[in-house]
Specification:
By secondary structure, the chain is of the alpha/beta class. It has helices spanning about 30-40, 55-70, 80-100, 110-130, 145-155, 170-175, 180-185, 195-210, 240-245, 250-260, 280-290, 315-335, 350-360, 375-385, 415-425, 430-445, 450-470, and strands spanning about 5-10, 15-20, 20-25, 45-50, 70-75, 135-140, 160, 190-195, 215, 220, 225-230, 265-270, 300-305, 340-345, 365, 390-395, 405-410. It has a 9-stranded mixed sheet, sandwiched between helices. A 6-stranded parallel sheet has the order 14-13-12-15-16-17, with helices on both faces. Helix 5 (about 145-155) links the parallel strand 6 and strand 7 (about 160). The model has no long low-confidence stretch (mean pLDDT about 95). It binds GDP-alpha-D-glucose. GDP-alpha-D-glucose (GDG) binds near residues 165 and 270.
């Protein structure tokens, strides 16, 4: 029977070693939840790196055995591959370029060679499991070359590719020395998906100018085959966030946090530590807000959760220092004995804690410089059980295309962010409810399950269309 093979850089598990014993914890990430219902069906499976460098053969065997029970198969990466393929090419070359931070991009031939080899390693593992009738769904920028590698080995397979981060405009993408090879890698797919229409247009324009293929209504003809490029805005597991927010556990946490936080109004900010998320600019805006509106001193607190991320990469270490310094300076300037304007946490928290913060927050301040989609803002909206609260959202997040009821800001315009904060803090409850209700309707409908079925349906449609094109 035909099966679905999902491929991502990381498997949806956390692998830990406790007293020599290997333990797995299934991840609660959005992708894992969305695909969870389908990847365990029938013979479907998931292939990816288990998240830890394991070189001993006996340990690798143990991991393979354990993961197999969960329909997962590992691709083992070496220390050097993690450094050069993952931290290097993926996170120091592609990530900054695709987020319009090309001044941070490192162009290193060795990183590129290892990126190619690592993509080949994924391909080799997939080939062991895939048959000609199978569908392979490849995820994200770490695996841009994989669709073509697979196409070569498995010409009849159905291959979908989804990119979770933005695709930059041609003028930025063309800066990459390996730009043409990257596009050719993606063109091995039958369907290429992005979060937004703009990303899709940028991709088509780069394909046109760098590879020479035009397009019609998203269809590209390579001369030997046709593929479709389309946008699929990713949603969240709405019910999970809505239900967690009204659970007894979350209500209990909220009572504890409220009694400890003295301020009347709470602003929440949650991101991985990443320069694309605009954390320093957000702090700058909050500091200017405190300066301009002193009547809010003692009354408003910014709860800022920053989740450690890529701390081996130099730019991330620098950013951490910058954020630490800014928080220290602002708190040093404005704190009283019983009020800190910023409560800063550099760690990750369980879902229930996140949910309590979402539920309590009068404002969510989501201001990335660039974001493929941004799920935090959607989770906030889903958690507002009484429809109060205001979302301040960057125009540069893919989510802004769907959430036009948010207060949309340009994260480079600090004064605009200051005024948005003031507007949000003084917005009448009735007005908050109108906007929140409308956003909830959108997010509830276009949830993660909708996203998965849209992509899979479109992929089947492409195959049917290709067949009819071949016979006419
Ligand atoms: C990439 C793209 C795109 C955060 N802190 C904790 C925690 N989180 C969870 C959030 C949310 C997820 O992490 C972050 O997702 P985002 O979408 O906001 O951002 P990226 O990690 O950059 O994701 C992005 C996404 O892929 C999907 O396509 O939207 O644009 O960059 O779900 O809740 N979860 C827990 N504790 C934390 O402390 N449990």
């Amino acid at each position: 029977m035909a099966k679905l093979i999902i491929v991502s850089n990381r498997l949806p598990v956390k692998l830990q070693e406790k007293e020599g014993e290997l333990q797995f914890k299934t991840s609660e990430g959005g992708l894992a939840t969305g695909l969870g219902s389908i990847y365990k069906e029938g013979d479907n499976l998931w292939i990816g790196w288990p998240g830890k460098v394991v070189e001993e053969a006996d340990k690798q065997q143990q991991i393979i055995k354990e993961l197999q029970k969960e329909s997962m198969f590992p691709v083992f990466l070496t220390e050097a591959e993690i450094k050069e393929y993952y931290e290097g090419f993926s996170n120091e070359t592609l990530w900054p370029t695709f987020h319009y931070f090309s001044q941070y991009a490192v162009y290193d031939q060795q990183f590129w060679e290892t990126y190619k080899n690592a993509n080949q390693k994924f391909c080799d593992e997939i080939v062991k499991h895939a048959g000609p009738d199978d569908t392979i769904w490849v995820h994200d920028y770490q695996l841009l070359l994989l669709p073509s590698m697979l196409r070569e080995k498995l010409p009849d397979c159905t291959i979908g590719f989804f990119q979770h981060i933005p695709f930059p405009s041609y003028e930025v993408f063309r800066l990459l020395p390996w730009r043409k090879e990257l596009l050719e890698g993606m063109l091995g797919s039958d369907l290429v998906g992005f979060h937004t229409y703009d990303d899709m247009r940028h991709f088509l324009s780069s394909v046109n100018r760098l590879v020479g293929y035009g397009s019609m209504h998203g269809w590209i003809n390579t001369g030997t085959r046709s593929l479709l490029v389309d946008s699929f805005p990713m949603g969240i597991d709405y019910e999970k966030y809505a239900q967690t927010a009204v659970s007894e556990e979350v209500a209990k946490r909220e009572r504890i946090y409220r009694s400890n936080l003295k301020a009347e109004k709470l602003i929440i900010s949650i991101d991985r530590l990443d320069y694309s998320k605009g954390i320093p600019q957000r702090l700058d805006a909050f500091e200017k807000f405190l300066e301009k509106y002193p009547e809010f001193h003692d009354k408003v607190t910014l709860v800022m959760l920053v989740v450690p991320s890529r701390d081996e990469v130099e730019k991330y270490k620098e950013l951490k220092e910058e954020v630490d310094e800014m928080v220290g300076r602002i708190n040093g300037k404005y704190s009283h004995i019983d009020w800190n304007p910023i409560q800063y946490f550099y760690r990750s928290y369980p879902l229930e804690t996140l949910s309590a913060f979402y539920r309590m927050a009068d404002i969510a301040l989501v201001t990335p410089m660039r974001d493929g989609m941004n799920l935090v803002c959607k989770e906030y909206v889903a958690s507002k059980h009484d429809q109060t609260g205001v979302l301040i959202l960057s125009e540069m997040a893919g989510a802004s295309k769907e959430l036009s009821d948010a207060l949309l800001i340009n994260p480079n315009d600090i004064d605009q962010m200051v005024e948005a904060l003031h507007q949000a803090l003084t917005m009448p409850v009735e007005e908050q409810k109108v906007h929140m209700t409308s956003m909830q309707e959108t997010i509830k409908r276009y949830n993660i399950h909708h996203w998965v079925s849209m992509f899979m349906d479109r992929l089947s449609y492409v195959k049917i269309k290709q067949l009819s094109m071949a016979t006419t």
